[in-house]
Design goal:
By secondary structure, this protein is an alpha+beta fold. The protein has 13 helices and 26 strands. The N and C termini lie far apart (58 Å).
């Protein structure tokens, strides 16, 4: 059989990619080796810049409605300390209390509505490619078969077979840490104090927050939605664990006993998960017609960032792949996927490696480092900068920019837009996942220039308060490809816009030939 794009892996990254491709008119085929969605607890929430992107697609309300717990205040662990963003009027970092199982179910329902073919229990055994196509040898429930496509994307996780078959190196560091996370209740024999501490018979109080011992780190807090306790341990171990084998209550209690020296009674458990930390980054995200996204491309040594990074990979890649499949991609467009998302991966690697340094030290110097870091975050500018870094909201792609506009390469802000038809917003005009030229200064010259690309972009006119540009050319992934400065002369603005349109959206449908008076 033949399809446009093969996606290997039906996790959040693969499903997001499938949705974006289908919205762009491409036929993806999703192949997942697991016969059923995994029930092993993994990520416990979705946070960061992907939430803004989902809002720009009109999907965020759907995800928020599925949350059974209230949306928590923006306080996040960072390398064994806490980053408290509640003092910011508007924080760039937010999170939804949405488990990975819930997220995959919601995305699966959405791509199903779009008509995407998801095949579970289909394992990719081999991948071959030539100048025209890529072929996957697949073993399905009724036997082996072969499928060809224009491109294949490996969204198949940390142990990516696609990455290995494509010969893409995956260098990095494996840390000797095992992290165990659970939500539990305790029996009546354990007293919960008003300050969040626990009194366990025969032991001193277990303090809320983080407790360091020479055997590891223990963390404890109260779930904002229930009486459940969130408990967390970190230990150095050399044991190799299989992520598909769930953690048991006995394993959790043994870990707490080793770290704290106390046997903590457990009444009920609502979540049990175990994970290890690696810092690995694929040398390239593309090898010919094979591409990587999500954990197949990067592993970060901290929690709470992998889903955000992987789903943003998918959004960046999808419209470029669609341009290739649909035959209008300008030269080099698909190569920008590696250039841009590898840059984003390095940025995420920066702060997650910094978390390693903060959490792994146990000497007085390390305690001093954590104290200084916490003190710096009492001031708003560094706190806001840190929030944007964690969220992935500070990414500025290195795009061609003849007028050096401050907005070029950044994610488009959600401006309130006043039009002849009423009030709307940038988020709403991006629901269709199409490029948009947003004219904010009634620049008829720029609208005329863009009309040669009207078959590929939407042209909108609006007024906005406190605008920083006369016009914005916004890509489907929400990033600004070009911006006209305030009152920029027509000759330079038209030239810059035409160059940006050609660079990102190919040959115009017709060429406007200037006439002389």
């Amino acid at each position: 059989m033949h399809t446009d794009v093969i996606i290997v892996g039906a996790g959040p990254t693969g499903l997001m990619l499938a949705a974006e491709l289908r919205s762009a008119g491409v036929r993806p085929l999703v192949l997942e080796r697991q016969s059923q969605p995994r029930d092993t607890p993994k990520a416990g929430g979705l946070g960061g810049q992907i939430l803004e992107l989902l809002r720009y697609r009109g999907l965020l309300d759907r995800f928020e409605a599925a949350c059974t717990d209230p949306i928590p205040a923006p306080r996040f662990p960072f390398g064994g300390v806490h980053v408290d963003l509640t003092q910011l009027d508007e924080s760039p970092m937010h999170a939804l209390p949405l488990t990975q199982q819930q997220l995959e179910r919601l995305l699966g329902e959405y791509v199903g509505e779009l008509g995407v073919d998801i095949r579970r229990g289909h394992q990719v055994l081999d991948v071959r490619q030539d100048a025209d196509a890529v072929t996957a040898e697949v073993n399905g429930p009724v036997g082996p078969y072969r499928v060809t496509a224009r491109y294949l994307v490996g969204c198949d996780g940390a142990r990516s077979r696609v990455r290995d078959l494509a010969g893409i190196p995956f260098p990095g560091t494996v840390y000797p840490e095992v992290n165990r996370l659970a939500q539990i209740t305790v029996p009546d024999s354990v007293t919960r104090l008003d300050n969040g501490d626990l009194e366990v018979p025969g032991f001193d109080a277990i303090r809320a927050g983080f407790t360091r011992t020479d055997r590891g780190l223990f963390g404890m807090g109260v779930s904002p939605a229930s009486e459940a306790l969130s408990v967390y341990t970190i230990e150095d171990e050399t044991v190799e664990y299989d992520d598909d084998v769930p953690m048991t209550v006995a394993e959790l209690r043994d870990s707490i006993r080793r770290v704290l020296g106390v046997d903590l009674p457990v009444a009920e458990t609502f979540r049990l998960s175990r994970f290890t930390f690696k810092a690995r980054h694929a040398e390239r995200y593309r090898a010919g017609r094979v591409l990587l996204a999500g954990d197949a491309a990067h592993l970060f040594p901290a929690t709470g960032v992998a889903l955000n990074a992987g789903m943003l990979d998918a959004v960046n890649l999808a419209w470029k792949l669609a341009a290739e499949v649909n035959g209008w991609a300008p030269a080099g467009l698909l190569d920008t996927y590696h250039e841009e998302r590898h840059l984003a991966g390095e940025r995420t690697m920066l702060h997650t490696r910094a978390q390693v340094a903060l959490r792994r030290g146990h000497d007085p110097a390390s305690e001093a480092l954590r104290a200084v870091f916490q003190e710096l975050l009492t001031d708003e500018p560094p706190l806001r900068r840190m929030a944007a870094l964690i969220a992935g909201a500070d990414i500025r792609y290195r795009l061609p920019d003849p007028n050096n506009h401050i907005s070029t390469g950044t994610f488009a802000p959600d401006l309130t837009l006043h039009t002849d038809d009423g009030t709307t917003s940038v988020a709403e005009v991006m629901h269709a996942a199409r490029p948009v030229l947003l004219d904010l200064a009634d620049r008829a010259d720029l609208r005329d220039t863009a009309r040669d690309w009207r078959h590929r972009i939407d042209i909108r006119s609006a007024k906005a308060e406190n605008r920083e540009a006369d016009a914005l050319l916004i890509r489907p992934d929400g990033h600004i490809a070009w911006a006209a400065t305030i009152d920029e002369p027509a000759d330079t603005a038209e030239h810059g816009l035409r160059a940006a349109l050609s660079l990102w959206f190919g040959t115009p449908a017709e060429t406007t030939i200037p006439t002389s008076d």
